[in-house]
Amino acid sequence: xxxxxxxxxxxxxxxxxxxxxxxxxxxxxxxxxxxxxxxxxxxxxxxxxxxxxxxxxxxxxxxxxxxxxxxxxxxxxxxxxxxxxxxxxxxxxxxxxxxxxxxxxxxxxxxxxxxxxxxxxxx
Length: 123
Prior knowledge:
Helices cover about 75% and strands about 5% of the residues. The chain has helices at about 5-30, 30-50, 70-90, 95-110, 115-120; strands at about 55, 65-70.
């Protein structure tokens, strides 16, 4: 279920890249002390949300869920998480990188069609 080693590695790299992008945006949109808060705080908040709200038994993670949620909500969270990262690249003047990132996310989800179907069926 979307758990081929190469696809899992791609997913991990996309997750890490998204967190870096959040920090990059925080650094470039502000100055002074708020710059540091956004650069560190936004990726941290995103990582906490990402790791907290899970679908139990999801093979793309440990399968454990601190706060169990239905699969469709998890897919929505993932869509927002990755789409926001691509958008933040665009608004910081890195539109080309944003499209590359979005394309890599799209490829990951194409390769994870079985996981998506499984998640849609999870209540």
